[in-house]
Amino acid sequence: MRKRGKVWLLVALIAVFGVGWYLHSSPAVRDQVNWLASQPRVQTAFDDEGGSAEALIVLLAFAIVTPFALLALTLLLTFAIKVVGAFLYRLRLPEFISLPVVMFGLGVGTYAVRDAWLPGSMYLLGLVARAYLVFYSSVPVVPH
Fold it and tell me: Domain-by-domain residue ranges, the chain?
């Protein structure tokens, strides 16, 4: 059993590195990263002395915090589905419709308050894209 878990971990790591390599070399993704990094609010980020170190810190923080934020959102979504399912059960309705109900409510709610979250998330994505461009354009080449 332990060997199978190690094999799946190896497969997952190879898949992550493969997707990362593809995204790094894809011209369409590169164009999107350049577009995000050219937003007016982030164009001058990391331009000062030591900007490459600051960019690395932003990239590391984003890479460390993002999985935990996604896990928290998944747990909240699961909790909401279970609560709505229990409520539907009390109304003698089928519980399996709790997923579409929660997803529809989440979609409508997200669309309704997009003015509150969209500018901040675009700024964050632009900052991460700018950090990516600054850090990977300033990495010194190793001499042969």
Answer: 38-137
